[in-house]
Specification:
mainly alpha, two-stranded antiparallel ribbon, 2 strands, about 45% helix
C-alpha cells in the first residue's frame, strides 16, 4: 500500500496492518446530553460555561480510559 500526501513528494509505505478488538464498558460510551441553559444574567452565563467545561472534562476522562484499555 502506498500513501501519497496531497501536493507533496513524500511517500510512506505501510508494511503491517493489525486489527485489534477491545471490549469497552458501556459506561464509557454513554454521554449524557447537555440541556440548553436558561440564561438571564452574567451568573447564569458563568454557570453554563462551568457545566460545559465539566462535561468536556468528563469526555476527556472517558477517552483517556478507552485509550488505556486499547493499550493493554
Amino acid at each position: 500500500m502506498l500513501l501519497i500526501g496531497c501536493g507533496t513528494t513524500t511517500q510512506q509505505v505501510v508494511s503491517k496492518i493489525q486489527i485489534q478488538k477491545v471490549k469497552i464498558p458501556k459506561e464509557l460510551l454513554i454521554l449524557s446530553p447537555l440541556e440548553k441553559p436558561q440564561v438571564k444574567n452574567e451568573l447564569d452565563i458563568i454557570n453554563a460555561y462551568s457545566l460545559l467545561f465539566y462535561k468536556y472534562k468528563q469526555c476527556e476522562i472517558q477517552i483517556r480510559k478507552i485509550k488505556e484499555l486499547n493499550d493493554e
